[in-house]
Amino acid sequence: MMNNNNPVLILCGGRSSRMGSPKPLLMFGGQTLIARQVTNALSNRPVWLAADNTRFPNTDGAHYLPDQLPGKQGALSAILPALELAKKQGLSGIYVLSCDTLLLPEQLISLFQSVQDNSVFKQGITLLNDDGQFLPLLAHWSVEVAGSLKNALEQNNKRVQWFVKSQPHQSIDLPREWAKFCHFNTPNEFELAKLAFQAA
């Protein structure tokens, strides 16, 4: 089963406390990060935004989803409604992308094409691996994990790494040239990420 049209869920509702300003609205290449990601993916697939009741400019065409739990209670709370909607629509899964990256959605998705026909991709979580560190917010999540995720949240378990390891999962090595710009939390890290992206 091909997954080329599965939606991408962009996680953009975090607190951005270490950055000091909302990460989705950081500027790069003349666009905000969130507008850049939406523009890249929208011609290829549905784009869903987990923004915790925030609306961002230049995101026309994207569909905003509510979190499962109120008050910015973590990524799992944002992922579950998207999995449930995908399942309702007869889709096999969702691609998940955090907004604090210079990776574009279609770059991430292209890495997963080589494994999209195996059983773990269809039943579990396929994620990037950065030198031994799992990156579950740069990943594909199968709708098959929705029930387990709902149970975890009902039991107040919001730990992303724990949940991933409790499910069928596989990892793909993060290309080394992407490592320096795939994630950032502070203004200094963002500046270094921009330099690394431009040098890649």
Account of the 3D structure:
There is one protein chain. The model has no long low-confidence stretch (mean pLDDT 93). It is built from seven helices and nine strands; from the N terminus they run E-E-E-H-E-E-H-E-H-H-E-E-H-H-E-H. A hairpin with a 2-residue loop joins strand 2 and strand 3. The strands form two sheets. A seven-stranded mixed beta sheet has the order 5-4-1-6-8-7-9, with helices on both faces. A two-stranded antiparallel ribbon has the order 2-3. With 200 residues, it is of the alpha/beta class. Helix 2 packs antiparallel against helix 5.
Brief overview:
A hairpin with a 2-residue loop joins strand 7 (125-130) and strand 8 (133-142).
The fraction of residues in strands falls at: 15-25%
Ranges with pLDDT <50 over ≥5 residues? none
Number of helices: 7
What oligomeric state do the depicted chains represent? single chain
Number of strands: 9
Q: Sketch the major β-sheet.
A: 7 strands, mixed
Question: Which radius of gyration do the C-alpha atoms yield?
Answer: 16 Å
Q: Residue share in helices?
A: 25-40%
Q: What order do the SSEs take from the amino end to the carboxyl end, as H and E?
A: EEEHEEHEHHEEHHEH
- Which outline best applies? globular
Largest sheet strand order: 5-4-1-6-8-7-9
Helix/sheet category: alpha/beta
Distance between the termini: 33 Å
Estimate the mean pLDDT confidence: 93
